[in-house]
Amino acid sequence: MFTRDLLGYITYLGYAGKTLIREFSIPGLVILTAGVVSAAISRFKHFWLLIFIFFSNILLLAFYGSFHDLQLAFRYFIPSYAAALIIGSYGIYELAQKPKLSKVKFFIIPAALLLILPFMLVKNYHENDRSSNFLAVNYSRDLLTGMPEKANLFSNGDNQIFPITYEKFVLNRYKGITIFDSVNTIFRDIDNLRVKTGSNKVVTNILTAFEQKMTDIYSTTKLGAPVLYESLNGLSYRITPDFSYSSNIPWKMMPLKNILYDITVYQEFEGREVAGIYWYRLAEKYLSENNEELFNYTAGRALDIAYDAVPVIGNLAIIITTPPLTNFPLAETLVKKALKLQPYNTELMSNLGSIYGNQGKYREAAEMFEQVIKRDPNNLNAVMYLNKAKEQMMQSSMKQAMESARDAFFNDGMKMIKDNKYKEALPYFENDLEKNPSLARSNFHIGLIYSITGEYNKAIPQFEQALKKEPENYNTLNNLALTYVRLSQTAKAKEYFNKSLKIKPDQERVIKMLQDLK
Prior knowledge:
This protein is mostly helical.
């Protein structure tokens, strides 16, 4: 029955406060205030019944629903600001029934209400201006445009399925396109694949579709699966077992009303998510055309408009991990933002684990895949990636240990130099040279010590050995030149200063020393 731990319930119910602020509107407040006054006159006759019905719905969602369900509950069952005002006014009513209560205590609840109302107004008034509400009237048509007559589309989510349902069954269009919905809705063709796969996962079912010789397969979400190729096809992706080029032709057939033209205010979550989908797919289109400037603009618009839409944030994160962008730090930031909105989304967790792995953060990757397996024990991909992360973590630890052992003498020598113990540092660098004869570092530092202690004839061979191993090291060339300056061998000094400037011309100090030698 209970699907969350204690922290899960605390986080889940914490959304009530955020939603209370988001769902505030002046018309609703006016109407509700009238209702509260009426309730006060009737001495809150049905107050406790109302509270029982309201919170029983919320508790049911806490047991069985997702985080977004709670937000929808506050939006569609009883708006959260309504619940807050009713409870607050009832508190005032109860206080009024106690004549011995001090004036200070009596004004606590009204004062709290007066403080929060302006904050609600300033923060979210733009969300409640319904004068030009966004409606994606062309979304389903734009989505299906450019697909073959007998295409197979894998999709899920209300914002995808409802418009497609309207297009197919109400407007009676696109009859030949088969819809595979990962959740049982009006579209049940997925059952034919699930009989064989026993899974709801899109990638698994698409692979089975290919085994059954299905062609013209499309998806409304970016899969990010290395075993499949995804090419952009307007608002969808064409899925193939082999590489295929993206097609930007469908964009030329879209009116883009309320997206690029007749831009309106995006209020409701659903409208903003759909608008965000247009913008991030536009971003991907410009990326395929190598137009970095327009990609950055459209991707930024997607994140600004659909700032709390997980599909938009998550898909953009996947996009920027692919070449030529491969921006894993930014992708990590985006997926973490999406996980704050949906903390138990195992796909997001898996994506974050992969992003950690690509950055060499193998421990964090392993921990993330362990969380995925804890919530979805049958996730074989997570098991495979967990084992890979653990293997890489072990290899990384061994490499670090080997490097630490390899560098021990050198690091000790550097500590001695830092403490101005030059003679004492020599044996450490000599030992490092024996252990790592191919590295120039100890030759350089032995030469530096001899130069500092005035033993120039001993310093020169060390610098020369270092240059044989690293001929382009301008620091070694400069130190060798300075050693010849101290030996009054001007010609040699000029020779090495000039070699250094050829490698790095903007060395002002070296230029000045060379001029002084002339």
